[in-house]
Amino acid sequence: MKNKNYTSFDISSLETKKISNNHFNVDRFKGYLEKNPHIQVTHKHSFYHMVFFTKGSGKHILDFETYDIKEGIIYFMKPNQVHKWEFDEHVDGYVLNFTSTFLEQFFINPEVIAQFPFFNIFESNQVIELDSDTQIRINGLFEDIIKEVENLSFCTPLVLSTYLLQIFIFSSRQIQNPENIPTKNSHHKIILKKYLELIEIHFKTVKLPKEYAKMLHITPSQLNAITHEQTHVSAGQLIRDRVLLEAKRLLVNFDLNSTSIALELDFHDTSYFIKFFKKQTGLTPEKFRKQYLSNG
User: Which InterPro entries would you find in this protein's record (predicted)?
Assistant: First the structure.
């Protein structure tokens, strides 16, 4: 089978309007595509990535889920997410990339952005269809950002950070009663956030909620109650979802067999990994790989 390694882009490798420290860049999407035609292959980024479409149509495949491209849609992507654009016609809009370091230089804790629904683990919140008034407002903010980058002046990076936060705020207001946004209990939200951070660190080797509960100094039943309250999903399912996502990335990213992937994800029995994958997706790992590559 032909090896299909994902291209991984660093923020400094893109041709676009940028400020000198290479932690922030912006452009109109049409020009961005013309200067960076290679981004139309399946790829991932080491930085935060935002795209607001004002024209065109097509599909966007983001971590194996397919979404529409159309006027008024804004996408928010976290580092290391895998995605691919499929355009049906000429598209335009705006693209903006930034690193967590960009915010840190103004003493804005990167955890601030984690409070916005589109930067949590629930991918359905990363794609927002803006109403007409918000489209006008967001369009204006992107134009202000482009002007600021083209005419660098005193405190330009700080000005850019204020525009960026406004885009986050106005976009997040468009999400009406989303099923996957954590509910209001602030203490439980903090525990959920810590739980998700621990999963991201340990999901390959720690697969049981009781082990995470111990790290969080709560009981397994408390952890499960909190995840149900906050996300309507069990504590165990959150772990399984993260393991499954990594398995899919490995299956279509590298020419690895199921045994190698099982070892990478700390499944010591290949047959158990295959059963796990099939239970979650309805497909064996190899059938998933063939289906994805045939569609790609």
Answer: AraC-bd (IPR003313), Homeodomain-like_sf (IPR009057), HTH-like (IPR037923), HTH_AraC (IPR018060), RmlC-like_jellyroll (IPR014710)
160 phi and psi, to 5 degrees?
Answer: -60, -40
Measured CA angle at 268 (ends 267, 270), to 5 deg: 75
Whole-angstrom distance, CA of residue 48 vs CA of residue 175: 20
Instruction: Between 27 and 230, name the one with better pLDDT.
Output: 27
- Paired tokens of 81: 């997410």
pLDDT confidence of 231, banded at 50, 70, 90?
A: confident
Domain coordinates in residue numbering, the chain = 7-172, 186-295
Q: How far apart are CA 136 and CA 114, in angstroms?
A: 25
Do 7-172 and 186-295 have matching folds?
no
CATH class of segment(s) 7-172: mainly beta
Nearest residue to 51 via CA among 148, 120, 111, 118: 118
Return the CATH superfamily for domain 186-295: Homeodomain-like (1.10.10.60)
Which residue blocks in the chain are alpha helix, DSSP H? Answer: 29-35, 100-104, 111-114, 132-150, 156-172, 186-202, 209-216, 220-231, 235-253, 258-264, 270-281, 285-295
| Full strand arrangement of the beta sheet holding 65-69 | 7-9, 43-45, 82-87, 58-62, 65-69
Say what the pLDDT of residue 186 is.
76
Residue 207 contacts residue 239 (beta carbons within 8 Å) = yes
Residue among 68, 98, 71, 73 at smallest CA distance from 85: 68
- Spatial separation of the C-alpha atoms in residues 196 and 47, rounded to whole Å: 19
pLDDT, position 6: 63
